[in-house]
Every structure is written in C-alpha cells, then in structure tokens.
Specification:
Distance between the termini of chain B: 14 Å
Distance between the termini of chain A: 6 Å
Structural class of chain A: mainly alpha
Radius of gyration of chain B: 21 Å
Helix content of chain B: 40-55%
Oligomer: heterodimer
Shape of chain B: globular
Number of helices of chain A: 5
Strand content of chain B: 5-15%
Number of strands of chain B: 9
Helix content of chain A: 40-55%
Largest sheet of chain B: 4 strands, antiparallel
Structural class of chain B: alpha+beta
Shape of chain A: globular
Bound molecules: flavin-adenine dinucleotide
Number of helices of chain B: 12
C-alpha cells in the first residue's frame, strides 16, 4: 500500500477545507467510491455525499449516510491510516494557531504564552503530535495501533482547544474541525469496533 | 461515608427531578440545540417556573416554589446547587436558556442597595418572563477579567458606557443585566452597572457555537450607553472599593458550586444514558462505567460540602476551584467514555449522545478555566488549607 503525503497543517484551516481533505482520504483509499465503516456508516463532505443527512455541529459541511455494506478490510485500513494523518494535521494546525493567538493575548502586562501552565499544555500537545508521527512511521503499525493513535490525538486536541478559551466553542473557532475529526474516529476507528486487525498493516 | 441529605433537600431534589424528567421525555434539549430560540415555546413548563424564581428572595415572589411541607427560594447555595444539578440532568442547555436571575441576581443581591434590589427582583419576578445576563468577559480579556476595558466616562450628572463584551449567556435575548466596566484605572476602578437592553447604544448578537447552544452566548456592543448613578450597583451605600470587583468575585465564588452542579448533572445523565442503552454491560466496560460513577458521586458529595460551607459563611476559594475543575473534566470524560462504550458510529446514530458530547466541553471555560482554578488550588496547598476539611 502506498502512503500518500499527509495534508500540511496549514491546509486544515476550517470545516470546508477539512471536508475537502476528508473526501481526498476517501478517494485515496477507495478510488471513485466512499468508504463505508464496519457499522455501515459513511461520513463525507455534504457536496460529495448528497444522499446523506447533515452531521450535527458541522455547519452543514459534512453529511452521514447509514445502512450501506461495509467496505473491504483493505480499504478500511487505508482509510483509517489517512484519517489519523488528517486528524494529526488538524491538531497540528490548531496548535500552531494557538501559539500565535496566545502570543497576542495579554494579562498582567505579559503574553499568555509566558504562563508556565500554558507552556506545559503547548508542550504536551507537541509531544503527542511528535509521538503520533513516530508511530505512523512504523512499518509494523497495526489497525489497533492506528486506533490508539486516534485516541492520543483526541486527548491532545482537547488540551489544545482549552488554550483558546471560549473561542474554541464557537462555530468560527477551531472546535468544529477537531470535533468532526473525533466523530470520524468514533465512526471508522472505534476501539470497540469489530473490524480488528486485518494484518495488512497501514503504511 | 457521605453525609445524609436533609429531608428539606431531598424533597426539593424530588420536586426538581420531576420537572427535569419532562425535559428529557419531550426531547427538549435536542429541540433547543437545533433552535436556541425554541425556549419561547416552552415557557409554561415547571422547569422554567423553577428557573424564573430561583434565588429571588421570597418577599418578591407571588407564588413561591412549594414542595411537601417546605417553601423554597434557592437563596441557599446548597438548594441552588441541587436545583440546577437536577435541571441540568434534564438538559443543561434548556436550563441555561430559561428566563430568570441566573448570575446577575447574585450580583444584585451582593451589591445592590434596597431600591436597586427591589427594582431588579420585582421586574424579574413579574408576570412577563424576563431574561437577564452577567456581562464580565471581553474579547481581549477573559481570564484577566480585572483588566477589563469597557469604560464608564462621566457626562453631566451621569455617565456614558462604551466597550464590548463577549461570550455572555442570553445577552441577545435579555431585557436587563449587569455590565462590569471601568470608571477608574486598576482593579478597584471597576463598577457593576445594571442595564436595560433597550437603552440606545446597547446591541447584542448571538454567537453560533458547536456545543451548549442553549447558553445562547452573545457578543455585546456598548456604544455610549447613558448610565445614571442609580444604575451603578451599591453607588449610594458602598465605598467604591467595595463595589464592582467585589461583586464579580462574590458572584463567581457563589456560582462556581452551581456550575459544578451543572457539569455533574450532565455527567450523571450521560452515565445513565449508557446504562439505559447497554443494560447488560459487563467486563471492562462495566468497570470503566463504575469508575466514573464513583468519581461523579465523590465530587458531588464534595460539592454539597462546599455549598453548605458557603451557606454557613465559609467561602473557600481553593475548595470551590477544586470541585469546579474536577466536575468540568469529569463531564468531558463521561461523554468520551460514552462515545466509546456505545460503540462505533454512536456519535452519528445517537443524537442525544452527540449533543451531550458537544455540550460537555463548555464547562472548562465557564466561570474560569482549568488553569485559573489550578492556580487557586495551588494557593490553597501553599496556605495549607486545600487538603484540610
Ligand atoms: C458556555 C459559556 C458561557 C459563558 N457565559 C458567560 C457569561 O454569562 N458572562 C461572562 O462574562 N462570560 C461568560 N463566559 C466566558 C468565560 O467566562 C470565559 O470564556 C473564561 O473566563 C475564559 O476567558 P477566555 O475564553 O477569553 O480565555 P482566555 O482567558 O483567553 O484563556 C486562554 C487560555 O489561556 C489560559 N490562561 C489565561 N490566563 C492564564 C494565567 N494567568 N495562567 C495560566 N493560564 C492562563 C487559559 O486557561 C486558557 O487556556 C462563558 C463561556 C462559555 C463557554
């Protein structure tokens, strides 16, 4: 299986961009088709998945359809691999913007970036991103490994969102992109899902 | 062992739980998630009645809340916590979208003189449903609220108020509220002003959010709003150093256990939802569920102690910060666990779970972030008070 270049963090700027990149993941894993999860769900951009219903909280950019026959294991693993890389790029982008934003916000005459608690959170997220990158580079990474990487990214994403304060809860903030990344993992990479290891690796 | 609840509290809890059950049975949380103005269609519900009179002193209320042999106004912090926790179990967003005093009432109670309190309470307790707001946070100053920039500039025998406020619950739908602003430099130059939203120069727009849409957080623009001295809370009765900032701090300290209850109500609802959806849950999954049940129960018990201490006049900032931050984290943790335990695709097939999952992230920010609470806990550790009961 060939691994295509993961999206650059700078490309994951908002929900429409994320939705387009998600469609790219489908296309790479199953050219000309959409990947259906083991549970029979498909999540893609609303433009691509015209028969679906809107995903709540995605401002109409993503749609979900249910009831299709699951895709083949090889396609599912290829898609899972791309999803984790997209999720990682999204968390990376949100971290980069957080550092810029915190540098511009001040309290007691100094930038919020000078607060050690803030610095600790930034470092935790960066460490998680770095470890995920190393995990994704392992030739032996299994489907279970991908699922664990997703769980790590959920935790890192939650940490970085906190650095935005209430802005992260608004539709224009970074929250929606990470929320849909989490939802995609819940649909396609669920820890309790029965698709298990297909043994055909991911990279 | 947990302290036994008084009969008065148990009766209140049962009374509120019935009102909350109605919210769940009718699926009103999801309705408000789709359309936060839908609250207007449900103003005759008991949950709304509870929120409308909650914390208004009995002397201002024509028909107080009566349950069993008891009459309640929820001016007790513990009773307020129990009420909000149970309503949040019904639906957090619905509860927050309700008319009533919410936070602004506590500020008016803490700072207002007799005529200010009378004017405010009579209006909020009146026949027409009245929404209120508590405007502290600004676009540039959130955690650093003491550095707020909205200004109160003298003009003739009054003032002009200018600036912006952000993330203020219900402001775009409210009739009146409290705005914190600066009359002079420094933390002690802050004032709390009671404002009518139909004053010229007041403008508020809802901010679309990904979660807790019922909170209806709003952006406020204040453009030379005329303020009379009698609108400044405590202007005639309190020294300027005992006014604005003191009111903000007292409101936040009094309200944090209430917010803790809000988060725990949602957390409990999520865990019960998992149990309902998977009644036969076993093995590791069951242990994970039980772990969070224990944690929620423990913070809940601690929160009642914190609230009872406030009622007894003991306001312990470190303890208050501790329960708030643990509850916010637990609410998030419960929804993450639920998404795991309810299986692949649960976030797309279970709309109730999906909403709770989006809502739970809000508690981190409301009334002070986890970092800010941790600093208060640290102060308690440093002074040797935090780990003492
Ligand atoms: C649903 C909801 C309802 C709300 N309702 C109201 C309301 O009714 N009225 C109102 O006035 N406000 C309200 N708020 C706003 C809330 O009080 C603020 O979001 C909160 O105070 C944080 O401010 P901020 O969002 O600007 O984040 P910031 O203060 O910008 O924080 C950004 C990051 O920096 C960190 N940070 C900041 N200062 C420090 C420090 N000194 N040390 C370490 N870390 C620090 C924070 O922890 C956070 O991680 C509401 C928010 C939400 C989400």
């Amino acid at each position: 299986m060939t691994t295509l270049k993961p999206p650059a963090p700078a490309a994951v700027t908002g929900l429409p961009e994320f939705a387009a990149l998600l469609d790219g993941c489908h296309e790479e894993a199953a050219p000309g088709a959409l990947v259906v999860s083991r549970g029979g769900h498909t999540v893609a951009s609303a433009l691509r998945l015209r028969t679906g219903v809107p995903v709540p909280g995605s401002s109409g950019t993503l749609a979900v359809a249910s009831g299709g026959p699951p895709s083949a294991g090889r396609e599912l693993v290829a898609f899972a691999d791309r999803l984790v890389r997209l999720h990682r790029a999204a968390v990376h982008a949100v971290l980069d913007q957080a550092v810029t934003r915190l540098g511009e916000r001040t309290s007691e005459g100094t930038s919020l970036l000078n607060r050690q608690l803030v610095q600790g959170s930034v470092a935790d997220v960066a460490l998680a991103l770095s470890e995920t990158q190393d995990l994704l580079a392992l030739p032996s990474l299994t489907a279970a490994g991908l699922r664990r990487a997703h769980a790590d990214l959920v935790r890192a994403g939650r940490t970085v969102l906190k650095l935005y304060g209430a802005h992260s809860l608004t539709s224009e903030g970074p929250g929606p992109v990470l929320y849909v990344a989490e939802l995609l993992g819940n649909t396609y990479l669920h820890l309790g899902s029965e698709w298990g290891d297909t043994g055909d690796g991911s990279s | 062992m947990a302290a036994a609840e008084s009969d008065r509290t148990t009766v209140l809890r049962g009374h509120v739980a019935e009102a909350a059950a109605e919210l769940r049975a009718r699926g009103l949380g999801l309705e408000l998630d789709q359309d936060p103005t839908a609250i207007d269609r449900w103003l005759d519900l008991r949950a709304v009645e509870l929120m409308r009179s909650c914390t208004i002193p009995l002397e201002y209320v024509d028909e107080p809340i009566v349950a069993g042999p008891y009459t309640y106004d929820m001016t007790s912090c513990l009773e307020h916590v129990v009420t909000i926790e149970e309503l949040s179990y019904g639906d957090t967003g619905f509860m927050l979208a309700c008319p009533g005093p919410l936070m602004s009432g506590v500020t008016v109670g803490a700072l207002g003189d007799t005529s200010q309190r009378k004017g405010y309470y009579e209006r909020v307790a009146g026949r027409e449903p009245t929404w209120t707001f508590f405007g502290l946070t600004e676009p540039r100053k959130g955690s650093a609220a003491t550095e707020l920039e909205a200004t109160l500039v003298p003009e003739g025998d009054g003032y002009r108020l200018s600036g912006t406020k952000r993330y203020v619950g219900n402001a775009a739908f409210a009739q009146l509220g409290v705005v914190f602003c600066r009359r002079a430099p420094g933390p002690l130059g802050i004032e709390a002003v009671l404002l009518d939203t139909d004053e010229p120069g007041f403008n508020a727009e809802p901010i679309p959010t990904v979660g807790l849409r019922g909170a209806r957080i709003s952006h406020i623009t204040l453009d030379d709003v005329r303020v009379e001295p009698e609108q400044i809370l405590g202007f005639k009765t309190l020294k300027s150093t005992r006014r604005g900032l003191v009111g903000a701090i007292r409101t936040l300290q009094r309200f944090r256990p209430v917010l803790t209850g809000t988060a725990l109500g949602l957390a409990r609802a999520v865990l019960d939802h998992v149990q309902e959806q998977r009644p036969g849950i076993t093995g590791t999954d069951r242990l994970r569920l039980e772990e969070l049940r224990d944690r929620v129960a423990a913070v809940r018990q601690r929160n009642y102690q914190v609230a009872s201490a406030i009622d007894a006049g003991r306001v312990r900032a470190d303890h208050i910060a501790g329960v708030k931050t643990r509850a916010a984290e637990l609410a998030e943790g419960c929804t993450l666990l639920a998404a795991d335990l309810l299986g692949p695709g649960s976030l797309v097939t279970d709309p109730w779970l999906n909403k709770a999952y989006r809502d739970a992230r809000a508690f981190e920010f409301m009334e002070g972030t986890g970092h800010i609470q941790r600093l208060a806990v640290f102060q308690g550790v440093y002074k040797g008070t935090f780990l003492k009961d």
